[in-house]
């Protein structure tokens, strides 16, 4: 029988999932029950993210993908997603059109002056008594003046605010990861967001993390792990349930 202690690592996604609904966390990461479907928002976000990552990877290699090549990456990734379930009137065609617009805006907003230092850069944070905390930094870039910035690439249904970047747990995890990669943990960071609005926008939100903010995140990870070890799993019924692929398992709980 699988138990919560079988984890070989922890990640931001796991912590976020646990805080959203601990029972969903159990189904996904402890019982490892395959999801009944892939929510369309997930398939779409992953495909856009993969196209953006491919763009920066080619920049790292001294080349640069064109918009139609970004589109090809999106389509390939979309086709690999299994059992996509559509919500809110979305269709494959409407999302293809949206993706084209978003990737065009993404490409138009590129900054040719930056140097790409890393894409999907792996880090591992050793935390005593816990499985190692692992993550991937979407993008590490360097400005012509030498300033290095860690970037989290995202899609969002609407414009965010500066407070979203300030409170982003993923960026706090990046700051901790930066330290393990030899950077200053107070390094500049940025949330780059392409909106899924009718007229997509590329928005950039800058932020940093203090010692206190990083320590608070580590404390949170310990707290979550403590709850996982005690198998404190229970449903948290809210708007997330509408697109939860483990609804049937939840009913049978
Ligand atoms: S249906 Fe809702 S409460 Fe149940 S596991 Fe999914 S997110 Fe949690």
- Total number of helices: 9
Question: In whole angstroms, how far apart are the ends?
Answer: 17 Å
Named CATH architecture? Alpha-Beta Complex
Tell me the strand percentage band.
Answer: 15-25%
Radius of gyration over all CA atoms, rounded: 19 Å
Shape: globular
User: What is the number of independent domains?
Assistant: 1
* Overall mean pLDDT: 95
Low-confidence stretches: none
Largest beta sheet, briefly? 6 strands, mixed
Structural class by secondary-structure content: alpha/beta
Number of strands: 8
Residue share in helix: 40-55%
CATH class category label: Alpha Beta
Query: What are the distinct ligands in this entry?
Result: iron/sulfur cluster
H-E order: EHHEHHEHEEEHHEEHH
CATH topological fold name: Lambda Exonuclease, Chain A
Short description:
The chain is 45% helix and 20% strand.
Characterization of this structure:
The structure is a single chain. 29% of the residues are buried. The chain has a single domain, classed as Lambda Exonuclease, Chain A. It starts with 9 loop residues before the first strand and ends with a helix. The strands form two sheets. Strands 1, 4, 5, 6, 7 and 8 form a six-stranded mixed beta sheet that branches. It has helices at residues 12-20, 22-30, 40-60, 67-80, 92-108, 162-167, 169-180, 211-229, 247-252; strands at 10-11, 38-39, 84-85, 115-125, 133-142, 148-156, 188-195, 202-207. A hairpin with a 5-residue loop joins β5 and β6. The protein is built from nine helices and eight strands. The longest helix is centred in the N-terminal third of the chain and has 21 residues, at 40-60. The chain has 253 residues and is α/β, with parallel strands linked by helices. Iron/sulfur cluster (SF4) binds next to α2 and α9. Residues 21, 23-24, 235-237, 240-241, 244, 246-247, 250 line the site of iron/sulfur cluster (SF4). This is RecB family exonuclease. InterPro entries: PDDEXK-like_dom_sf, PDDEXK_AddAB-type. GO terms for molecular function: exonuclease activity.
């Amino acid at each position: 029988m699988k138990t919560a202690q079988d984890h070989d690592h922890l990640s931001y996604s796991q912590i976020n999932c646990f805080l959203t609904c601990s029972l969903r966390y159990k189904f996904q990461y402890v019982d490892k029950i395959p999801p009944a479907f892939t929510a369309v928002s997930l398939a779409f976000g992953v495909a856009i993210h993969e196209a953006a990552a491919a763009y920066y990877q080619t920049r790292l290699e001294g080349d640069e993908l064109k918009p139609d090549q970004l589109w090809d990456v999106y389509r390939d990734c979309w086709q690999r997603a299994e059992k996509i379930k559509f919500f809110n009137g979305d269709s494959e065609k409407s999302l293809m059109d949206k993706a084209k617009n978003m990737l065009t805006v993404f490409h138009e907003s590129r900054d040719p002056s930056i140097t790409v230092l890393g894409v999907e850069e792996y880090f591992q944070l050793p935390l005593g008594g816990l499985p190692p905390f692992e993550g991937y930094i979407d993008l590490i870039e360097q400005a012509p003046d030498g300033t290095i910035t860690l970037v989290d690439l995202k899609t969002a249904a609407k414009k965010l605010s500066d407070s979203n970047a300030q409170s982003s747990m993923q960026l706090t995890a990046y700051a901790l990861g930066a330290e393990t990669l030899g950077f200053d943990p107070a390094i500049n960071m940025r949330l780059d967001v392409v909106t899924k609005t009718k007229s997509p926008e590329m928005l950039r939100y800058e932020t940093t993390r203090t010692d206190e903010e990083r320590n608070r995140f580590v404390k949170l990870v310990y707290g979550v792990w403590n709850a996982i070890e005690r198998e404190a799993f229970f449903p948290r019924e809210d708007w997330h349930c509408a697109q939860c692929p483990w609804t049937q398992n939840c009913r049978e709980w």
